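pls read this stuff:
=====
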Amino acid sequence: MSTSARVRADACPGVFATHDAADGPLARVRLPGGAITADQLRALAEAAEDLGDGALHLTSRGNMQLRGVTRPGLAGRLAAAGLLPSPSHERVRNILASPLSDTAQKLAPALDEALCAVPELAELPGRFLFALDGGQGDVAGEGADVCWRDGAVLLAGEDTGLRVTAEHAVETLISVARAFLRVRGTAWRISELADTEPLLKGIPGEQAEPRKFEVDPGLPIGPIGDATGVAPVFGRLTSAQARKIAKAGNAVVTPWRSILVLGALEADPGLITDPGAPSLGISACVGRPGCAKSLADVRADAARVGRTPRVHFAGCARRCGKPAREHVDVLATEDGYLVGGAFVPVGELTETLATLAEKGTQ
């Protein structure tokens, strides 16, 4: 871990502090643990239609974004739907939870409530991330600042050796966040601190030898008991699709731009339920025309490729939305792409990525 000085203001978007994108204001709605009720999903679908571009955009932190929000009234709608319990804390309610873990899903709302109950924690950087991993190793690999993994406490992905029970998980994570505020200086993330020992000072628990945990990110796509794992293409959920999911019941939005639908779902060609679908391995930033910084319409180019390794298409060097898991970097340039650092013309993308996929299976 290293010390890093931040000179720019924290510009993570929220509901009150939107981001000025090329296609209009972008509002990010936090969903702690990814959990969303059917009524809340309907409310978001209506807000996207009435106030934005008509779609909900899934993020790599299990949240949802509305783009092109050019009309007023979003905050009031979210508050009425129970999606804005603390306006002062709305940008810091960044909580991941294992979608298939009952323990993690139960702890997430408790952590959210505890977070919003501490006034000082409203000053956390918008990038600070909590995670609750039920032991699956799924969200533990998503770059959280502090993670409770079935008893183990991890800081910036590294096991500290501290062990606390589920009963004390929430108070432990809150304690770490408060300590971070006291020592952070200009740091936005725990990974930027030179010394993390003060973050754990005074926290009760057992001490074990730190270990290297395996991670296994992702949500199974297709039937999962009575539920269904689905993936909207490029994480873009139309209002109509959102209503289909809401008709099935409550849901959990994941940091892999997929959704665990907790009920019987109507078929929809835009909701991938086939675990073998090639497009599951492709992610992309919004690209042109939504982003003025993008050098290409990356989603259109990504949609034309066939078999690929796991790849992320990025329109500029910021690489927005890139997955935490291992992937091939596909970066737009003025006249083509850099694939893993090597230039490839647009017309050769399909063949190049298919070749990389073939090599990966050998």
